[in-house]
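Hey L., structure's done. Input below.
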Amino acid sequence: MAYQYIEDEIGSIVEVVSVKMLTELQAIDPAITGVHYEFGTVLEIIETLTQKTESNEWRYKKYPLVCLFVDIKEPIGEVGDYSDLKLNMAIVYGTNADFKAKQRLELNFKRVIMPIYHAFLDELSLRGNAFIGIGPAERIKHTAIRHYYWGRNTISGNEANKLGDFVDGLGIENLELRYYLNRC
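Output:
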């Protein structure tokens, strides 16, 4: 058995969510090509999204996006052991800069971001081969924060754009997982 990486495990979950949700998401926005996935530092993800913006092929294939932010505590132990992890992630979707909060809630959070979030947690809860003791999706410990027009927070509101684009996002902080060391 090959060494398994958390980044790949999360990526495979996002792939399943993308396949399961594509028809539903395209009914909302026919331009959606899937639920996309990137991992890295915030700056690296911004750089990747900027490169995609400059590409005719990828310009409109960025969102919705699930981001896994690194650094990740590497699970260490013997095969059959487990390691506790805390991951930080985000689910983001491109938005219109002129939308007000009510429009963002109705058009972006309720229709795209939150359904992806729930589908992700549901799929994560089914991954007993990699994550143990999770239980049902609603019991997975984490903090979820809705970011309307996600940017740099200041006293007067959000300034700048978090990912270089106009996005609304759900920050998922301290996602607590018990990772089963089933690799060699």
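The radius of gyration is 17 Å. The helical segments are 6-28, 42-53, 101-125.

-- N.
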